[in-house]
Amino acid sequence: MPPSYTPATVPQGHHETFAARMARKATDWSGSTAAFMVAVLLIIAWAVSRPMWDSFDTWQLVINTATTIITFLMVFLIQRAQNKDSQAVHLKLNELVAAVRGASNRLINAESLSEDELKALRDHYCKLVELAQNDVKTGKPHTIEEAVDRHEDKIGEPKQEKTTV
Fold first, then answer.
1. Distance of CA 96 to CAs 29, 101, 117, 155, Å?
2. Gap between the Cα atoms of 63 and 72, Å rounded
């Protein structure tokens, strides 16, 4: 199988346990085109195998049992991938909050706050939205020039003189 570049892929040189490596590989593979094709082929093989079974109930039991087992295992693989992705997103957001001057450091690890604390923060930001909606500039669309100015600010280039025609 060619190398996978999914979010569950671990960088080279990173050491993980055997179980974690197997779960990651299963997660990577289960989302591939090859896995989809195998699933389709298994269903086709099951459907055409009907004459080989004496009992219709046994024939149905085979596919029901197989899909139940696969579904049971996939629930854990999907949850593992979601947890890992969620943790990575939280860490990236924490880094941004920590790096931006003026951002409230109270938001770092906000996911660990109680529901009441989250509600208080949500109310705070809802009030900011309400105040912003009353701001005259809020309705003003952004321009291409603003995008160029922001880009130049980031890379430290001097602003170009604006010419009017």
1. 32, 10, 21, 18
2. 14
For 147-165, the DSSP string reads: HHHHHHHHHTPPPPPP---
Number of domains in the chain: 2
Per residue in 30-59, pLDDT (tens digit) is 989 999 999 999 999 999 999 998 899 999
Q: Which residue range(s) make up the domain with 162?
A: 109-165
| CB contact at 8 A, 78 and 89 | no
Contacting residues for 112 by C-beta, under 8 A, at least 6 apart = none
Note whether 1 and 32 are within 8 A (CB).
yes
Of 52, 79, 103, which residue is a domain's last? 103
Q: What is the pTM of this model?
A: 0.58
